Request: fold
Amino acid sequence: MNLTKGTDGLSELLGQITGFIYPNEIEIHWSILIVVYPYVTGLVAGAFILASLVKVFKIKEVQPTYRLSLLTALAFLLVAPLPLLLHLSQPQRFYEILLTPNPSSAMAMFGFVYAWYLMGVLLLEIWFEYRRDLVTLARTSSVPLNWVYRVLSLFSRDVSEAALAFDRKAIQFITIIGIPSAFLLHGYVGFIFGSVKANPWWGSVLMPIVFLMSAIVSGIALVILLYMVLAGIRREPIDMACLDKITSYLFYAVIVDFSLEALDFIHRLYQSEESVKILGSLITHKLFMSLFVIQILLGMFIPLGILVLAKMRGFGDELRKLLYFTAVILIQIGIFATRWNVVIGGQLFSKSFRGLMTYKMEVTGIEGLVAALVLLALPFAVLYVLIKLLPTRRLDEVSAATSTARTA
Amino acid sequence: MNKREFLKGAIVFFPAGGALAALARQAMGKETGSAPAKDANGKKGYDPASHFYGMGVDIDKCIGCNRCAVACKAENDVPDEPFYFRTWVERYTIARDGEVVVENISLGARETTTQDAREIIRTFFVPKLCNHCQNPPCVQVCPVNATFTTADGAVIVDAERCIGCRYCIQACPYGARYLHPTTKTADKCTFCYHRLVKGLQPACVEVCPTQARIFGDLKSRASRLVRFRRLNKIHVLKPQLNTEPKVYYANLDGEVR
Reply:
């Protein structure tokens, strides 16, 4: 037999099939990069929705994380298309998806949803939020940074009360459009999976909603994490009222997320369709660790318990911080496992419903573990640059804070 | 043979031969549509719009010789490895206690079955291939229209256009697609489209020694496929998914998915 280059890995998997699979199913086509993609977009949507709490629902306590949430959303959104691009086996043809999209393809809508969210919502809101500071920074910074700020402010100089009032109104308007857009962005990612009728593990009308709720969970948890880490680095006090408020939102989001996933699970079990047996052996043989242990126990039950504990008892600030910190890290791991279980789990059983396959992750390849870790780290590097350029607290707040400190 | 007998024979032979050849041409034309049609420019050529192809598979005729799968790989440059198939043959063995064992006999060396022959109540072969669905989920999901349905009903992939996102592979309920390891694009059965347009049958149909595979034009009332559909009880794979396959199985067992 003439072996084709790069197929020896698949020959190895041939021996690891249990039961019967269609012969072409051996290759797991959507790799860890496609796990990273919904994870990252989920963080974008979640962080943005947290930011919207401040502007639309006027929740004042959450204000300290407002700008951080926006910048986090932007940093992750900028990286979000990369795993998709790297995953294509003909990446140089990616532009076809933008130039000649197939209107009936959910995936073809990616470019439009992405472009709308980036330019129509996120960049616009960030610009209006930062415009006043950018004008100030352009005046006060030294060369060449002042030029950077001047370009970022799009050469606007007007900081009159009327102009600032317009900024506020614009932000309000964009946020109101932004919430459904964030829902669209991540609900759409869920739809890519949920609309595949060939795959009973994916094909569910609940999929977009489950994706959305888990996105909100992961986004909020990430902003909490970043807020705490940032305060630690800057040696600033953490606003405990803010932290308590956000963590209670996080708590409710986890409850809703868990209820939806439990509903999905019970529904499948009770309906007991043709696929129920193979999905049963999928979760017990292939996903036991990542689903029951990591996603449900470590990623949901334990953090929920920690959050309840932190709220119920009159613990001191330091202990509460520690508990919150532990909970959000566990939740992040849990949500990553959720994405893994959907994307990889959906490819580990045969569509003949008679057998299971194995996914062997590459380590160094373009679709391997290292690439995935780099892609997960990249948004933090982007965020570092963004935070360096764009202050996470309004300049007038900072100066007010320093002047009160001085008088005290 | 004297001169008179030779001439007499020739008088009968040549017109008869000509008539037979004409009949054969006509029959072929009805099968695969090579009857020369004129295109818009008035030139003689293949007119896709006047055909609509499908395939019939008679389970009871398949002997599991696997020649179809071998011929397919040779005809279409499908990689040799046992995980790239445009067509393959499954063997079902159903035991008295209801246990079903399915094997892909196109994988190469076969292990001998461990089942007790006395406990087997029925066994049969099922050739599989792309169903060239009339409501194809792969075409629906392709983000760049690289996979499409031709006017004559074949679902094919444009390898120059495919970006390798593999959504089509995920969307196919029949496992009929794979990513070609050399071209790095989605690949699948084309009904041997390059042969169809020349009036030939797909390679798998041509080599089948028992005529278990029947190919034909659903638009022609005289085609073998239409006759096959008239004379047999017909079933398709996974009808509940509403993909409307055009590979029609006769005598298909309920265990087959």
